[in-house]
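#lab-general

N.A. 3:47 PM
ok so I finally got the sequence cleaned up, no stray characters, all 82 residues accounted for. can someone with queue access submit it? mine expired

B.Y. 3:52 PM
send it over

N.A. 3:53 PM
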Amino acid sequence: MVCPQEQIPTDVRHEGDWACLKLEGPFPFSQTGVLASFITPLSDQAISIFAVSTFDTDCVLVKESSLERAVEVLQQAGHTAV
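B.Y. 4:20 PM
back already:
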């Protein structure tokens, strides 16, 4: 389950401190490799991710401590931050 950290009950075991990077969609179902082009550079730099996909976009969560580095890596790979 994914939800805002402040909504997690105190007695629920969880892992927090995630930041969300949203891929601007929608992407047609026939378009392949969108998520891979985003997570491969992060993986190559040992930046862990948690991906959440919906019918019209993808969100990639990275630990807040890795956010700045993740954005740098993605920009070097040709992605644009908005």
